[in-house]
User: Fold these one by one.
Assistant:
Number 1:
Amino acid sequence: PPLVALRGIGRRFPNETVALDGLDLDVRRGEFLSLIGPSGCGKSTVLRLLAGLDRPSAGTVAWDGARPEIGFVFQDATLMPWATAADNVFLPLRLRGIGRRDAAPRIGEALERVGLARFAGHRPAELSGGMRMRVSIARALVVRPRLLLMDEPFAALDEITRLKLNDDLAELVAALGTTVVFVTHSVTESVYLSDRLVVMAARPGRAVASLDVPAPPG
Ligand code: ADP
Ligand code: ADP
């Protein structure tokens, strides 16, 4: 069975906006899934439903077993500007009641994975946009997620930084074996990164196509 099966999902907001209507979507274990579709079709809403940050107004979200540990990377790095990279990465552990001393090795490991071990003491303003996004990815990884949700993480970055982060993300995800649901506007990026693309129709959103991306030869 899939890691999670969304069936007949609807999401109507109190202002009567219908973001999703009749969305069926499986997230398969271990896949890198990209969600693409026009602005406003409900991609972020799908991520929030998966994360448990929002509830559907119709339909079911069925997990295969317990809901896994989830890491969320938001559009824009959304770091605390006053806090160092290490303190930003510490946040999800602190919220889980883990003390600084126990957290330290995990914070170091997460920053190491994104190539920023030497920047643990830097504040966001002292880092480049790409480095801030790496800190944000480390913050998502520090909980050792089995499901990583990413909402247009690289949209605000310049093309070169974006290509570099695409490469690094592909490597990171291959090493971790985490299931990923990745929202992007870029078809190029989704084809490069993903095992599968799901195309959503304009609002109210639903999945209209699922395309498997063949692995490159060799
Ligand atoms: P996408 O990520 O595909 O751009 P979203 O999931 O952010 O789309 O939004 C889907 C639709 O729902 C949009 O029309 C958006 O304006 C609307 N929407 C999102 N959140 C809310 C909310 N809290 N209240 C009302 N409308 C919302
Ligand atoms: P990124 O690709 O991570 O966004 P940038 O190309 O924006 O990085 O980097 C801006 C500056 O920061 C460059 O001088 C780059 O060499 C430096 N830099 C980025 N990542 C690292 C790192 N892991 N170690 C040392 N320097 C780095």
Note: The two ends are 29 Å apart (CA to CA).
Number 2:
Amino acid sequence: VAKDAGKRTYRVFSPEMDNKVAEYIWLDVNLRKALEADGQLKLYYQPKLCVKTGEVHSVEALLRWDSPDRGRIPPLDFISYAEESGFIVPLGRWVMREAAKQAAAWKAQKLDIRIAINLSARQLTSSTLIQDFSDVIRQSGQSQCLLDIELTESCLIDDEISAHAIIRQFRELGAKVQLDDFGTGYSSLSQLARLPLDVIKLDQSFISSIDQNATSQTLVRAMIAVAKQLNLEVVAEGVEAEGEAEFLKDAGVDYFQGYLYGRPMPVKEFEEWLNNKGKRLRLVA
Ligand code: C2E
Ligand code: MG
Ligand code: MG
Ligand code: MG
């Protein structure tokens, strides 16, 4: 940064920058350790419910890190570092493997649950991404791919053509490709229309209090209309209140995900949830 300011000027690191550097170094050392150690990293699973039937056929895998020094560290506090450093690539490989193992374990218990994993932009630039994914699928010993992919718009804008090819390859391997946080990025409708997607996930910022917000209602109705024209399924994420769910059901959303139904949970807790609450869920009338 100081170099950018020109050769004859120099800048003293501000305390704020110092903190950033120190944090980067801490993450660099400790995230590496966490990946090697057992049990520091785990996947939590959040159900997605079919609006028509109330059934749970899929979950989203969300990364959690329990650091021995700092306790629980949420993904937003380390994913961007991992993207910058490139560590997201081995980390993402771990997520894939872990999710594939879990999906196979559920299959062995006669539970048909697909698991969606999140990929960030940096992972899409990894030349081994598709190979890694197909290795994981093959090694899982399943005849069918049980993993789906969630991508954000930021994955698509840098290089539309290669994003297109990557999405196609994921689909050929049997994964459904979902566009995450839809409506918050900068991809255009024409771009969206060209991409071979399966699902869009409406960002939770539109869902929050949608039953009381006319602007959000208009936006969400328009997004759903576009999605239907393109034959895409629609997930609403961040559903927290009955009133929101009622509006979204009427508007034609296909799947609900949110605290109203289930938070992201560790495996055992999710299985209990599925056996109890998950079975008796009454969605909106
Ligand atoms: P995301 O993929 O959009 O995931 C949804 C986030 O919304 C999750 O936050 C989830 O816990 C939260 N959420 C779900 N339902 C509700 C609700 O009803 N209300 C509210 N307020 N929040 C809700 P989380 O787990 O903190 O993850 C944050 C982000 O970190 C994710 O956003 C995703 O972009 C990223 N992330 C998480 N795990 C991974 C991973 O394995 N790989 C990559 N590359 N990114 C990940
Ligand atoms: Mg997601
Ligand atoms: Mg999202
Ligand atoms: Mg998000």
Note: The two ends are 57 Å apart (CA to CA).
